[in-house]
């Protein structure tokens, strides 16, 4: 992160249902936000990240997909 602020991580399943929503306050620098997929069924999921900096600047990272295989 280029400065401190809030990280919002949202994850949807293939039916466009929100399955996880994680919000963390982070400081400036390289950061990690953890979440667990233990409650997810096998399948394809999509995630997006929105960074809202303390200065008011907002950075949206386009959605990406990942797979969960049990």
Task: Report a brief summary of the structure.
By secondary structure, this protein is mostly beta strands. The protein is 0% helix and 56% strand. Strands 2-1-3-4 form a four-stranded antiparallel β-sheet, with no helix packed on it.
Describe the structure.
This protein is an all-beta fold and 70 residues long. The protein has one domain. The chain is 0% helix and 56% strand. The protein is built from no helices and four strands. The protein has a four-stranded antiparallel sheet with strand order 2-1-3-4, with no helix packed on it. The chain is elongated and about 40 Å long.
Strands, total number: 4
Give the oligomeric state. Answer: single chain
Structural class: mainly beta
Number of domains: 1
User: How many helices in DSSP terms?
Assistant: 0
Uncertain stretches: none
Reading side by side through the largest sheet, how are the strands ordered? Answer: 2-1-3-4
Approximate strand percentage? over 45%
Give the overall pLDDT as a whole number.
Answer: 95
Shape: elongated
What is the succession of H and E elements? EEEE
**If you compute it from the alpha carbons, what radius of gyration comes out, rounded to the nearest whole angstrom?**
13 Å
Largest sheet: 4 strands, antiparallel
Distance between the termini: 32 Å
Task: Indicate the percent of residues in helices.
Answer: under 10%
């Amino acid at each position: 992160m280029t400065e401190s602020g809030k990280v919002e991580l949202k994850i949807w399943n293939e039916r466009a249902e929100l399955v996880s929503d994680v919000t963390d306050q982070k400081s400036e620098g390289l950061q990690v936000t953890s979440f667990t997929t233990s409650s997810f069924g096998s399948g394809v999921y999509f995630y997006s990240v929105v960074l809202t900096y303390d200065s008011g600047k907002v950075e949206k990272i386009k959605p990406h997909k990942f797979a969960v295989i049990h």
